[in-house]
Design a protein that fits this description.
This protein has 28 helices and 8 strands. By secondary structure, it is an alpha/beta fold. The protein folds into 3 domains: 241 residues, no CATH class; 198 residues, no CATH class; 131 residues, no CATH class. Strands 1-6-3-4-2-5 form a 6-stranded mixed sheet, with helices on both faces. Strands 7-8 form a two-stranded antiparallel ribbon. The longest helix is centred in the N-terminal third of the chain and has 24 residues. The relative contact order is 0.07.
Length: 603
Amino acid sequence: MPTKNIEPKLRLISEYTLLEKDDVFEIPQYQRAYSWTILHCSKLWQDIESFIDSGAEDPYFFGTIIVDCSTPNHLSLIDGQQRTTTFLLLLKALQLRLKDALDKLNMGPDTKALWLGLSTSYSTILKILYKADDDKEVAIEKSWDNARRTVILKNNSINELHRDDFQIIMDAESYWEAEKKVYKIPRKQKDNKYTNFFRNFKYFCDELAKYSESNLNNFAKIFLSKCQIIEIRSWQIEQAITMFNSLNSTGMPLSDADIISAQLYSFSGESDREKFMSAWQKIKELANELGQRKIIDIDGVLQQFMYMNRAEKQHYKLNEVTTPGLRKYYLTEHAEILREPMFLCGKFKKILDIWDKIKDYQIIKLLLKFNENFKLFLISYLNRYDVDKIDKDVVQPIAECMLRLFAIIESGDASYSASKFKTFLFNENFRLVDSTYPLAKIIQDFNNHISNTWKEDAVATDLRSYEKNILVYLNEYLYAKEQNRYFDIDERTNVEHIMPASGHNIEVIREDAGIEDEEEFAILVNQLGNKILLEETINKSISNDWFKTKKGSTLKSRNGYVGSSFGFALDLAKWPKDRWEKDDITAATEAAARRITNFIFNK
């Protein structure tokens, strides 16, 4: 069959999405996941509404879409998968809203034109989404089951974790059927629990629900008859990708993981392709799960491997802290590593498995409160071990080394990029990745660096004036270690001001505590000695109360410090006085400063 030239054509969106019976849009395996958010959909919606409000006669243009047609009946979306997917989700939301309007509208002399307009738009959308000729449309009216399982878009992307959501939405007879069946992200609330597919679909449904029948009719008619794209069809995949690289200046930028996974896919070879896709799918799933908890995402995996590999292979020199971007490192400087996709997948998976194993360790949850750059170096050390050999005894000593250094960053004015932090860690990374370099020497390296770089009194002075919240968690952790008490934190752990920072009784409480003026109060109330950790449920009920009330009366009620599991709160519940005063804050701040300073200097 002779090779066809490219075929650009200006088409209505309703024409572009209306496929032949055996045709299907296809998202290639190397493409990114569906990434459009409500912000993108809102912009699209506003563009359409503005166009409608303008009353313009000329069509409205929504950009260029590049389609590879080299495989019969497969319309492979080289550029335009985000817009095409979104157009189809909007059409589905519109189909449901039109159906609802038609069911409620009684056709009579005054409503006949409106009913015909809505009915025509509804029929057009059925033809698009369900390839419904007249007979099939009648069959769908009899039973929605005749519409189900019509595939118009097939998502083959190895980066798409929840591709079934799109078809679930298309198959649904109602919004609520779709909502019941789509994937819900664990631990997420409200709309954040949904994937982009359903979240965007819901956005369109919500917007369309605001329309009266006449406005709905106008919107549907104009969207179907005046909104256009340029579809460029190519019958050579290389040609299509070349055009994509030339034209893709306004679309969503590809992520580092998108680019690198596409390269790995291309190097996997026909015989190992299925094996690679399976491995990459597992990597993406675990990275997505850990990313939801802000532990590590897929780009973080790529970065952490790069830091480890650069140290192991000595791709940089002592005192050198400049790092290449991920794309430059993987695609240009060391492209050879991409030629072993399965080996690299194994390395990526191990990084994720380590984080998955340690994510609920107390020390890790504490470290995650600090500057996240610690992850780059902690993983370098833990990578020495088989995952099943890693336990709390392995993690605790190296994690506390990181905690000591990053506590200095948190307490002072210097940033991670300062040479006394970043240069030290980059140099130490040569040793962290070296399994023959013992932990005792690593600890000594941290001891020497800290004692040679900082003065204890200067650190303690910084801590006395510290007014933020991260070191409150560290102070509580160290106090629990001193007392051999339980310590654990989660997203429901609050920082509590023992003396309230606000509230309707604040002036009386301030004077009662012996604090002379508002300026002095503003300083004292935010010091370390006036802050503890407290469970959210307790904190909400007592946060602005008097100290006597905060202490609580009975363990049974669990209302007050007496019901907490944190050491400081429990000891405050037994405080011999019913007031928390200026001198108490000063003494507690001094104790906290000395406690954290001793920890930093490993005393």
